[in-house]
Specification:
With 315 residues, the chain is mostly helical. Helices cover 54% and strands 8% of the residues. It has 14 helices and five strands. Strand 4 and strand 5 form a beta hairpin. Helix 7 runs antiparallel to helix 9 and helix 7 crosses helix 11.
Length: 315
């Protein structure tokens, strides 16, 4: 791989590359399309899958096909008027309500934490290091993910050497790049120390029991207590969380890794954060993204002394 190719590859997120490859393969292999494609063939492809896939999935497929044509030096057929008109017709004839993850409410978070603390206590009494490590890892995942409103990919990218703890105050997490950081400038996130449900305490207890000093923070743990050298994959966090919620006795519903993010947005809204403060804290760049996570039935209160102090005093 040339230096140019290496930097071009680094400019696109791995998840994006993987989904684009799958989309192009679906068009070419499963559907039987030819590349480079014509606008008419892409319009037929959309029509053939209009009843099978959501509009967002179809738009993702179009983005992948557009990227393939551009990188191969061909004109982009996905921008043709016939393609746009077919997509508009699909949206009109097959309207769908976007599915959203159920928010993890603060009371449910407390239930999960209590359950994991009991598991940790039992494992410690039995000298079960594997059980103790699993409980401590899951607590760190839950509490950091909730109080920072992190996405799955952000949680998966956390590294110990990029975390700084300030005793009695909180900690700072640094992510060199994430989905919201389009320019790869790197972002620092403040995490407060709280009186209960504390993410800083959960982080320190996880490091203490695991013995980790650098590398990925959240890792796979096998049944023999062996920690993986690599971090948890972002796609594995949703089933892990669903298992955790189920074990804690929460009702079965539409849980996903976004449940932590939506849960924090719900908590912050109920505690008087305004949209601007919430967007700044979580890292949303536009109002449309933020409103997908906020319950529209909730009324927004006025921001009093600032968002983070409210969090510290409330919890």
């Amino acid at each position: 791989m040339s230096a140019v190719d290496r930097y071009l590859q680094a400019g696109t997120r791995e998840n994006t590359r993987r989904s684009y490859r799958a989309a192009v393969e679906h068009f070419e292999v499963k559907w039987g399309g030819f590349l480079p494609a014509t606008a008419d063939s892409i319009a037929r492809y959309l029509a053939d899958h209009a009843e099978q896939h959501s509009i967002n999935t179809l738009k993702q497929r179009l983005a992948a096909l557009a990227q393939w044509h551009i990188t191969q030096g061909f004109a982009d057929p996905t921008k043709a008027p016939v393609v746009r008109q077919v997509l508009k017709g699909i949206r009109s004839l097959h309207p769908t309500q976007e599915k959203q993850a159920a928010p993890l409410l603060i009371t449910q978070l407390q239930t999960c934490v209590d359950h994991l603390e009991r598991q940790a206590a039992v494992a410690s009494a039995r000298h079960d290091l594997t059980g103790l490590m699993r409980a401590r890892r899951d607590l760190a995942l839950l509490l950091i993910g909730f109080w920072r409103g992190f996405r799955a990919d952000e949680l998966a990218r956390l590294r110990i050497e990029h975390v700084q703890v300030e005793a009695g105050t909180g900690m700072t997490l640094y992510l060199p790049h994430s989905k919201g950081d389009r320019q790869h400038m790197g972002t620092q996130y403040r995490v407060p120390a709280l009186k209960r449900l504390c993410p800083v305490q959960a982080y320190q207890q996880w490091l203490s029991v695991s013995g980790l000093v650098r590398g990925p923070l959240l890792r796979k743990l096998d049944r023999w207590g062996h920690l993986s050298d690599s971090g948890l994959h972002s796609n594995s966090l949703a089933p892990l969380l669903r298992r955790l919620f189920e074990d804690a006795g929460l009702p079965a519903q539409g849980w996903s890794s976004h449940s932590l993010r939506r849960g924090f947005a719900t908590w912050a809204t109920a505690n008087g954060w305004d949209v601007k403060s919430l967007m700044s804290y979580v890292g949303w760049k536009d109002l449309k993204s933020a409103m997908r996570y906020i319950d529209p039935a909730m009324a927004f209160g006025q921001l009093a002394a600032g968002a983070l102090p409210a969090l510290l005093s409330t919890e």
